[in-house]
Amino acid sequence: MSRSILIMVVVSLGFFFVTATTFTSLGYVLYSMVAELGWSQAAAGMSFSILGLACGLSSPLPPMLMKWVGTRLTMFLGGLALAVGFLLAATVQGIGVFFVATALMGVGFSLVAPSPAVYLLASWFPKTSSRMIGFYFMAGAFGGVVGPLVVGAIVSTTGSWRTHWMVMSVAALAVGLMSLAAVKDAVPVIDVSDVKNAGLTEKTADAQAKPVSWSVRQALTSRSFVLLALAMMIVQTVVTTMHSSLVAHVASFGHGPAAGAFAMSLLALTGTLAKGVTGALSEKVNPKLLLVWGLALQCAAMLLLCVAGTPALAYVSALLFGVGWGLSWLSAHVLLLRYFGGAIAGEMVAMATMATTLAVIGPLVAGWSADTTKSFTPVFLAFAGLLAMAVVVTALFLRPPAPARRADGRTAPNTSPSARRP
């Protein structure tokens, strides 16, 4: 096996692993931990929020470490951070220690994926980097499908959530050691911008080299960006909260956590497939329409989950939500690219993604609701209202932005495809 293919396999395995063991499956483990240790749902939600916050705040760290010590050691340190976090989780008694554990998991996630891997794939596969990066993200998404099922199998077989964390700690160390043995920089990282721009295709790079009509400041203050960022923030908040509470909510129907784990896997699977289809679909259908439909499907899913009392209805809700998630999330990114051009698309996506950091509040609010009302339904109903609002606002007010002003004060033409569409 060539070095490039070996690196592709190892980094894809790393993304698969971190996705499977953190965000998508933590809700299952928390259900068992809360029952045994007597934690409140709010405390459990806070641990999920800390995971997301640590992951977001540590995202600038990988490029800096890759510059200082190389990508190999960066990914190894990520595996080590995960292993220590999982080991702490296996031995935890108090919620404070678990907060530290989830923070380490978030940092480990950032160091393993996706920035280091995207840089490696872009430098080792210069001619086919887009395809390889696409395969890589598919592997990561598939981890979200498998993770809850694997966790469920371990916990149900051994009867102990501590065993699950021990197994994941050993596996994380193995992932780190594989990275240490297989990863090698094709081109050393000279500047952090090398990592940030690694995923650019030649077409996008050419667009960046040309004068553009939009400045980042102009784009950030446009109504189009504000509405897209708002929609993305609402979607990410609801998705994050679903990851933290869906298992416990479905388990409250009286059928145990296994049904919730299956619902979570179904959500991840349909979300992954929908994202794959949306890219091609947006070339034939106005992405704004896809965004509106995606938000509407998520709203319907939340309403169905509010009245569901059986696993079957929860599965239908998860299916609808996954499709809506895939449609809305990818179409919002497509609209950012079409509205503001490839030259600043990366910065616009980064700023919109930064706004979604507020999503970490969702699990905390959902946990507080479960402690206060003994149900997640009030929060799900509130989220359905937010999604309905997003549907109306997006449908009525989202338009291609007006042509930007050039430095000389004249209006620059907006030549993006969306500018010529209704």
UniProtKB/TrEMBL annotation:
Subcellular location: Cell membrane
Source organism (scientific name): Caulobacter segnis
The organism's taxonomic lineage, starting at the top: Bacteria, Pseudomonadati, Pseudomonadota, Alphaproteobacteria, Caulobacterales
Domain Major facilitator superfamily (MFS) profile: 7-402
Entry protein name: MFS transporter
Protein's membrane topology: Multi-pass membrane protein
Keywords, in A-Z order: Cell membrane, Membrane, Transmembrane, Transmembrane helix, Transport
Alphabetized SUPFAM superfamilies for the sequence: MFS general substrate transporter
Chief place where the protein resides: membrane
Pfam families: MFS_1 (PF07690)
